[in-house]
Amino acid sequence: RSLNSFPTSHDCADSQAAGNREVRVPATAVYSFDAHDGEVNAVRFSPGSRLLATGGMDRRVKLWDVIGNKCEAKGSLTGSNAGITSIEFDSAGSYLLAASNDFASRIWTVDDYRLRHTLTGHSGKVLSAKFLLDNARIVSGSHDRTLKLWDLRSKVCIKTVFAGSSCNDIICTEQCVMSGHFDKKIRFWDIRTECIVRELELQGRITALDLNPERTQLLSCSRDDLIKITDLRANAVQQTFSAPGFKCGSDWTRVIFSPDGNYVSAGSAEGTLYFWNVLTGKMERMFSKQHSSSINAVAWSPSGTHVVSVDRGSRGVLWSDF
């Protein structure tokens, strides 16, 4: 087929907008807890709820209720044979997907903690797995330098794409999968044609990707200690965030947008949590007292009232905006 018939990376931008909630940056730490037995790699809020999930090197996904200013343990999702690297809820909050260092991804039902599917086929650690927006398919990215597309109805891998470099994170829109790689490149894949639409090369290994609510801006973190926003419609880096003390602590340090897309948050190698204002480009706030080891991941509650950060020690910290 002709080159002109490929979708442009404008197709990677999505028109679907989120609710317009006013979100404030947290003002204080309200609760600190031992989340796992060892390093905590991942943290997510369930969509539209106060249910929180964390994933650790102890091979467990743990579920927590954020009630008032506390995280109360609800239960554990077991079945993984190695450390959890990433977690995600489906759009309804009914299923939880986790990628693991044991070369597999798994899906549990949230209400009864039951393991439903184990997706095997990668020949290296699975570093990220995400639901496509139809919730009927999953994309996983691995240290084995491939991306795999899985059909949840048949529970089989329907496509393997060789990416050429270890994949550290994935994010999806309706038409497009974006993957961040060890070779400093972000690759944009068209889901229909399974082809790379384009590549964007940054100055450091890509550790994380996130999208704003409108899915028009791609957030990335890389090992050169820079956080960038790429405008998906203009195909250009729009903004760069940094701070004198900010250091990206690992190849899987996760960064996030706030639920309204107005702020960006990331944790640093020495345990400081940073917040930047997207509109001004300036650092809004930093907290340096709660974590004594590298912060691996951050999650913002859908309502915008709470943030949770998790670290390489075993700790989770709940932050509140009031």
CATH architecture: 7 Propeller
How many structurally independent domains?
1
Fraction of residues in β-strands: over 45%
Q: What is the assigned CATH homologous superfamily?
A: YVTN repeat-like/Quinoprotein amine dehydrogenase
How would you describe this structure to a colleague?
The protein has 322 residues and is an all-beta fold. The protein has one domain: YVTN repeat-like/Quinoprotein amine dehydrogenase (Methylamine Dehydrogenase, Chain H, 7 Propeller), CATH 2.130.10. Helices cover 0% and strands 52% of the residues. The chain contains no helices and 28 strands. The strands form 7 sheets. It has a 4-stranded antiparallel β-sheet, with no helix packed on it. Strands 2-3-4-5 form a 4-stranded antiparallel β-sheet, with no helix packed on it. β2 (40-45) and β3 (51-56) form a beta hairpin. The chain is globular and about 45 Å long. 50% of the residues are buried.
Summarize the structure.
This protein is an all-beta fold and 322 residues long. It is built from no helices and 28 strands. It has strands spanning 28-34, 40-45, 51-56, 61-67, 70-77, 84-89, 95-100, 104-109, 114-120, 126-131, 137-142, 146-151, 156-162, 167-172, 176-181, 185-190, 195-201, 206-211, 217-222, 226-231, 236-241, 255-257, 263-267, 273-277, 283-287, 295-300, 306-311, 315-320.
